[in-house]
Structure formats: C-alpha cells, structure tokens
From TrEMBL:
Protein name: 3'(2'),5-bisphosphonucleoside 3'(2')-phosphohydrolase
GO biological process, one term: sulfate assimilation
Protein source organism: Mycolicibacterium agri
Source domain of life: Bacteria
Classification via InterPro entries: CysQ/Inositol_MonoPase, Inositol_monoP_metal-BS, Inositol_monophosphatase-like
GO terms, molecular function: 3'(2'),5'-bisphosphate nucleotidase activity; metal ion binding
Binding-site residues for Mg(2+), renumbered to this chain: E64, D82, L84, D85, D194
The protein's required cofactors: Mg(2+)
Length: 245
C-alpha cells in the first residue's frame, strides 16, 4: 500500500526549503555570488537534514551537500535530495530556473518526489501531476544555456525541433512536465540527486524516463554517478532513442 504521507512530506519540505532559499537570496543580495551560493547550499541542506531526521528518523538520506553514509546501501528507504539544484542560476538574482529536489527511494523504486521552483512560486509533486498540454508542431528540446550537449543537437535535427535554453536539471524536467518543452536529454554527467525527484514527478505526469540507451534509471547505487538522462513526451521517445541509444 502506498503511503501518500511521503508525497506530502516531499512536497512540503521542498517548498519550505525553497522559501528559505528565497530568504537567503534577499539576505545576500549585496554579497558576492560565491557567498550567496555557499549560504544557499548549506542552509537548505541543513534544513532538509534536520527536517528528515525529525519526520522520518528511521530513513537514510543521500544529499548532494552531505557526506555519503554507506548505511543507505542496506536501508529500505532512502531520501535523495538536492538542496539547491542550479546554484549558478540561484546566484544570479534575476533568474528563476533553479530548484529544490526531494525524492524517496524505497525497495528499488522512486515512490515519492517533489521539485520546488521557488522563484516561480511552483512545486510539482507526486502523486498528482497534470499531464502536459498538447505540444506545438516543432518539438522543443531544452538545453543548458552554457553547455549544450551535441546529443541534444542531434535530437533537434531528428525531430525538426527547436532549442530552449534553461538552467538547472530540475527546471528543465519541470519545463517538460509543464508543457514548456518536450524533450530533455543529457549526457554530460549527473548524479542521482540531480534527477531522482524530477524523474519521480515526470513519471507521475506520464512522461517517458530512461537512460539515453533506453535502459532503466537505477537509484541508491554504491556510486551515485548517473551520467545520462532522457525525459520526454512518450510519443517522442522512439525517435529520440533511435538517436541516443
């Protein structure tokens, strides 16, 4: 039986961490971007670790900003969190394409997840995520504004699509969920915390999620490196995988 209280915890903690980060942004508005980044990473991480220790004390946690505790490898339930996804975008006060990720892995599967987009005032969370609206004629492939991968350009050409520049991984997946983009393909190196919550949310919206060769995404592995990712509308998956697989 699915415990939807876990969904509520993921959504609430991601949202609250996002509000905290907006406060950090205001507090450090006149500071250097490096100080702003450091404060955001630390305060959001500390908040999430304390909150999860209080609300789910028996569960393990894997956080980008924390030391990797090997106890998670024998745990039944592991929260996978990115306290601040898109630190660079967070540090730029006019950008809203950064996120907070909170996901729960249990017995081999992602069972709950939330992606907060604090500067947009939005949190996308399981179990109820609206399916994206009907796409435009030319599919939109969302890419990094600084490091567009060659594989995304190949997908664009195969789909006769267009490119949309955006910041963090969570913001990119959220754009596909919201219908502001149609494909997110990444092959430049990521970790489990970059995609766990976004993938949980994307699945709840009925989107295709996999490695770029079509194999399943696996979480809570000994090495948290998960170097590539595909999230797209299901009707586009076959064509995209013919390019990336």
């Amino acid at each position: 039986m699915i415990d939807h209280s876990d969904d509520e915890v993921a959504e609430r903690l991601a949202t609250e961490a996002g509000k905290l980060l907006l406060g950090v942004r205001d507090e450090f508005a006149d500071a250097s971007s490096a100080d702003r980044k450091a404060a955001g990473d630390k305060r959001s991480h500390d908040f999430l670790m304390e909150a999860l220790a209080t609300e789910r004390p028996a569960d393990a946690v894997l956080s980008e900003e924390g030391a990797d505790d090997p106890v998670r490898l024998t745990a039944q339930r592991v929260w996978i969190v990115d306290p601040l996804d898109g630190t660079r975008e967070f540090s730029e006060l006019d950008r809203d394409d950064w996120a907070v990720h909170v996901a729960l892995w249990e017995d081999g599967e992602l069972v709950a997840g939330a992606v907060a987009l604090p500067a947009q005032g939005v949190t996308l969370a399981t179990p109820d995520v609206a399916k994206p609206p009907h796409p435009p004629a030319a599919p939109r492939i969302v890419i990094s504004r600084t490091r567009p991968p060659a594989i995304a350009l190949q997908v664009r050409d195969a789909l006769n699509g267009t490119l949309v520049e955006m910041g963090s991984a969570g913001a990119k997946v959220a754009a596909v969920v919201q219908g502001r983009a149609d494909v997110y393909v990444h092959a430049g190196g990521q970790y489990e915390w970059d995609s766990a919550a976004p993938v949980a949310v994307a699945r709840a919206a009925g989107l295709h999620t996999s490695r770029i060769d079509g194999s399943p995404l696996r979480y809570n592995r000994p090495d948290p490196l998960l170097p590539d990712l595909l999230v797209c509308r299901p009707e586009l998956a076959e064509v995209v995988l013919s390019v990336t697989g």
